[in-house]
Amino acid sequence: MPKAIYTEIALPEIVIQANALAVRLGFPLMPEGRPVGHKGPPSACIPQVGKLLQVLASGKPKGRIGEQGTGAGVGTAWLASGLRNDARLISVEINPTLATAVTELFKDYPNVEIKIGDCNEVMSPDQPYDLLFVDAMPRGKLLDPSNWDSLVDLIKIGGQIVMDDLTPVEQWLPEWNDIVDAKREFAFTNHRVAGVEVRTTQTTSALIITRIK
Question: Do the Cβ atoms of 128 and 101 come closer than 8 Å?
Fold first, then answer.
C-alpha cells in the first residue's frame, strides 16, 4: 500500500472550520467533486483544488491574491492557508448572508478581506492581482470574448487565474459534443494568456492560466 501522505490531503484548521460553516449554511459540500453531468447548485471547493490553490498562493510572497465568489469560504480558507510574507487575500461575494458569515470566520485574519458586491464592479484593474481564483461560475457575458480583456487586466503580467469545475473532455456526455466551453476557450485561444488543464480527480479538472501580455 502507498504511504498515506501520497494519497491523503491534510486539511488546515481554517479549512476544517470553513467546511463546518458550509454545513451550517447549507452550502453543498462535494469532497469527491461533481459527478459528470451534475446540474445542482454551486458547491464548495474540493480538497484537490484547495491544495492547488494553497500551493499557488504560497508561491506569491507579499502578493495580492483575489477570489471571485467567496461562497461559504472553503476556497478562501485554502488560499489563506497559503499566504506568505505579508501577502493579502481579497475575496468578493455577491450574497450578503454568505459574505457576512465568512467575514466572521476570518475575523482573526488581518490579511484576509471579504467584500460584498458584484466582483465585476468591486475588482479593479487599477489594483491587479498576482493570483485570482475565479469561482463565481463564470458564464455568459463574463467569459464572452468581448470581455476577455477585462478579466485578464485584473491580473499582473506573470500573474495567474485558476478556474475549476471542468469535466475532462473524454468524459463529456454525447449531448455536449457540439458546445463551446467558455472556460477552455478563454484559456486556450486567448493570445494574452497561456493556459493548461490539470486533472484534480478522476472526473474533474481545473485550468491554470498565466497572463503573458
Answer: no
Q: What is the CATH number of domain 41-211?
A: 3.40.50.150
Give exposure, 61-96, as e/b (b: 16+ Cβ within 10 Å): eebbbbbbbbbbbbbbbbbbbbbeeebbbbbbbbbe
Global model pTM greater than 0.90: yes
CB 68 within 8 A of CB 94: no
CB atoms within 10 A of CB 117: 13
b/e map 179-208, b = 16+ CB within 10 Å: eeebbbebbeebebbebebeebbebbbbbb
Residue for grid cell 481545473 = 206
Q: pLDDT tens string for the chain (213 positions)?
A: 889 889 899 999 999 999 999 999 999 887 666 667 666 667 899 999 999 999 999 999 999 999 999 999 999 999 999 999 999 999 999 999 999 999 999 999 999 999 999 998 999 999 999 999 998 865 557 788 999 999 999 999 999 999 999 999 999 999 999 999 999 999 999 999 999 999 999 999 999 999 999
CA distance 28 to 46: 11
E strands present in the chain: 64-68, 88-93, 112-116, 129-134, 155-166, 193-199, 205-211
The amino acid present at 211, given as its one-letter code, is R
CA atoms within 13 A on the CB side of 60: 27
